[in-house]
Design brief:
The protein is built from 14 helices and twelve strands. It has 364 residues and is an alpha/beta fold. It has two domains: 257 residues, 3-Layer(aba) Sandwich (Rossmann fold), CATH 3.40.50; 64 residues, Beta-grasp domain (Ubiquitin-like (UB roll), Roll), CATH 3.10.20.30. The protein binds guanosine-5'-diphosphate.
């Protein structure tokens, strides 16, 4: 899962991104991609992995991860090429969801680019750039589709109708996701890769003092009302504090959080919210070599889940042997689960469930 961090200058993006990078030091041996300077990889907190590790004593434990991309430099006029303009907009196109950091902290030492703290104005400044960029994409697409539609192409006429409806929403200054679309139309809209069709999580960056009661911060309240209207989520956190939290070891962290009256760190809440927002879940693999969590979309069937591990697994898929996480814990070993008849053999139509402990059987 890829998340792109955006926001005006001086709102706390780098501070949050530093926290992310430090959190990612734990998974430094992350095997899948070369880590770029603007990318941070964070493990998805999952206590099931620790419990399974107690059973299997594996050589290593590999959590699912979320990739954060720092898309700094989005400023007023970006859609017209101001700042590093279009380059940043194209980076946003590649992410699954946007994390929009908004300044909700007062600090006379930190200059606000617009002079005052005003989260809604800030949100709209960024959003208008994204909307303008989308309008440009849409206009180009409409031009082509228009020609085809005039030639009597039914599909093109259907598409043109959707494009026009989305354009209308954008022209009103609203994000594309506010356009009312049904199933097929939504699928078509997704393929357009519009920036404002992507899910958004607003991070309300608050100061240390509001951390125990973020709702009492009037700026946060405003952001929540704004986000509610467009169906987005708000995660209040203090980026500065997050940066400190990730540097503590587990024991220190526990104490510190208790002292602050916090159950989860802001980063953990952010990751959890993005999982929910994107409809993701994890299945697990466990053995003496490795205990590991893998990310899939809800509704994914067994062969495609196998394909997340390796494309050969999907191609040669025979069946999946599955024990639920709860049964696995209760039985204490795969053999015991099998003996008790709690290991199910599932075929290619099986829809994976969150926390399934899986052994894939496949032909090579
Ligand atoms: P960016 O330009 O959006 O990347 O912003 P930075 O992360 O560089 O932050 C700008 C300034 O705001 C820095 O001096 C930070 O120390 C300060 N800052 C960032 N987050 C917080 C926060 O949560 N609370 C307070 N009080 N200051 C913060």
């Amino acid at each position: 899962m890829k998340l792109g961090i955006v926001g005006l200058p001086n709102v706390g993006k780098s501070t949050l991104f530093n926290a992310i990078t430090k959190a990612g030091a734990e998974v430094a041996n992350y095997p899948f991609c070369t880590i770029e300077p603007n990318m941070g990889v964070v493990p998805v907190p999952d206590e099931r992995l620790d419990k399974l590790a107690e059973i299997f004593h594996p050589e290593k434990v590999t959590p699912a991860v979320v990739e954060f991309f720092d898309i700094a430099g989005l400023v007023k006029g970006a859609s017209k090429g101001e700042g590093l303009g279009n380059k940043f907009l194209s980076h946003i196109r590649e992410v699954d969801a946007i994390v929009h950091v908004v300044r909700c902290f007062e600090n006379p030492d930190v200059v606000h680019v617009e002079g005052t703290v005003d989260p809604i104005r800030d949100i709209e400044t960024i959003n208008i750039e994204l909307i303008l960029a989308d309008i440009e994409v849409l206009e180009r697409r409409m031009e082509r589709t228009h020609k085809a539609a005039r030639g009597g192409d039914k599909q093109a006429q259907w598409e043109l109708d959707i494009l026009e409806r989305i354009k209308h929403v954008l022209d009103e200054g609203q994000p594309a996701k506010m356009c009312q679309l049904d199933g097929d139309e939504q699928e078509f809209a997704r393929q357009l890769q519009l920036l404002t069709y992507k899910p958004v999580l607003y991070v309300a960056n608050i100061d240390e003092d509001s951390i125990t009661q973020p709702e009492s911060n009037p700026y946060v309240k405003k952001v929540m009302d704004y986000a509610k209207n467009e169906g987005s989520e708000v995660i209040p956190l203090c980026a500065k504090l997050e940066e400190e939290i990730v540097q503590l070891d587990n024991e220190e962290k526990k104490l510190f959080m208790e002292e602050m009256g916090l159950k989860q760190s802001g980063l953990e809440r952010l990751i959890k919210a993005s999982y929910e927002l994107l409809g993701l879940m994890s299945f697990l693999t466990a053995g003496p070599k490795e205990v590991r969590a893998w990310t899939i979309k809800r509704g994914t069937k067994a062969p495609q889940a196998a394909g997340v591990i390796h494309s050969d697994f999907e191609r040669g898929f025979i069946r999946a042997e599955i024990v639920s996480y709860e049964d696995m814990l209760a039985c204490g070993s795969l053999a015991a689960a099998r003996e008790k008849g709690l290991m199910r053999s599932e075929g290619k139509d099986y829809v994976m469930q969150d926390g399934d402990v899986v052994l894939f059987r496949f032909n090579v």
